[in-house]
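Form 7-S
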Amino acid sequence: MPYDGERVAKQNRHVDNQTESDTLFVHEFLLARDVVEREPVDVVESYTMDDSRAWCFVRIHNSEKMQDVYFEWYYEDEQYFRMNAKIGVSDNWRTYSSVGLQPGQWRVQLRDRHGAVLAERTFDVSE
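Output:
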């Protein structure tokens, strides 16, 4: 199913555990089955092992100079993967991260350069 921004906006009016930094504001923080041309495809709340990867999409506002943010993926409460992303000055900067999946409990966080959690999603992967 292609990305339907209006539908997703209605379903995701807030971002779980969102924190505002001085210059960054997360508009969307979504899990999806894929990201194509910087747009999420098939927004989901969980995965199965039929999904080989988890994709996390963020749409973020940055009112200052280019900044680093970090996608931190946790599997069974242990850090699994960390990815740096550059966020340019924009009201609508879009970027994403993905990981290969294993069955169990997962969490992905978006952190600013100071380590503050900007957004977080938790999800399960079933067999």
